Amino acid sequence: MKDCGDRAEHLAATFLERHGLKLVAQNYRCRFGEIDLILKDRGTLVFAEVRLRQNERFGGAAASVTAQKRARLLRTAQCYLGDQANQPPCRFDVVLLNKLDEAAIEWIKSAFGE
Question: What pTM value is reported for the model?
């Protein structure tokens, strides 16, 4: 399954780069968790969570971004920002895939309402 996750992240990164974002880091980890993709969208730093669910049985990719997952992402982003000299405006995007196909990508900008 890790291979599918890696392929989903690669598809998402390629998709976002084609839409003008620049990849800064991939699979950033700290003690609080992991952020799949960190990108720049002009002057904004984008923390992107990539979710692949090939089975709708448990609600699909969107349902897998729980409140607990959001809290971990926020803490991990704060950890990342703590290592930066300047703190640019930030947002959290979610890239949803219900299959490994770029045509099936759903990109939710500012997914956490920040």
Answer: 0.87
